[in-house]
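Design request, tokens follow.
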């Protein structure tokens, strides 16, 4: 496939003018996340490889979840299913971060958490999270 330049707000999947959802591949998401982390945390080449492998593993998992849940699918979920989905995503993120922790230095990990909180605050409005 041809490479499309993707900005951070294009992830996860964003509707184009003609209503087609443009969803980056797990590889693209993993690369994007790794580039971001490399820039923010000054990762070594070795850390980069490990972080990208972790990002890819979890991007793959989340892609499967996301494909099961088109926008239409989410509307039809019961509150219990939504709660379960949110719990699964949070579990996945916690597991991913536990793996990051084994690769990053303490200082890098603290910076990662700080950046994540800042990003979450910014994205919160967008995804309607408090």
């Amino acid at each position: 496939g041809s490479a499309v330049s993707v900005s951070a707000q294009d992830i996860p999947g964003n509707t184009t003018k003609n209503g087609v959802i443009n969803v980056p591949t797990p590889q693209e998401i993993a690369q994007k996340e790794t580039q971001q982390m490399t820039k923010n945390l000054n990762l070594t080449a070795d850390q980069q490889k490990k972080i990208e492998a972790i990002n890819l593993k979890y991007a793959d998992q989340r892609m499967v979840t996301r494909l099961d849940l088109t926008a239409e699918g989410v509307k039809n979920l019961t509150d219990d299913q939504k709660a379960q989905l949110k719990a699964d995503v949070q579990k996945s993120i916690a597991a991913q971060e536990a793996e990051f922790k084994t690769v990053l230095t303490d200082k890098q990990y603290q910076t990662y958490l700080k950046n994540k909180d800042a990003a979450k605050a910014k994205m919160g409005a967008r995804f309607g999270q408090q």
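Comment from the thread starter after seeing the answer: thanks! Residues 1-12 have pLDDT under 50 and may be disordered.
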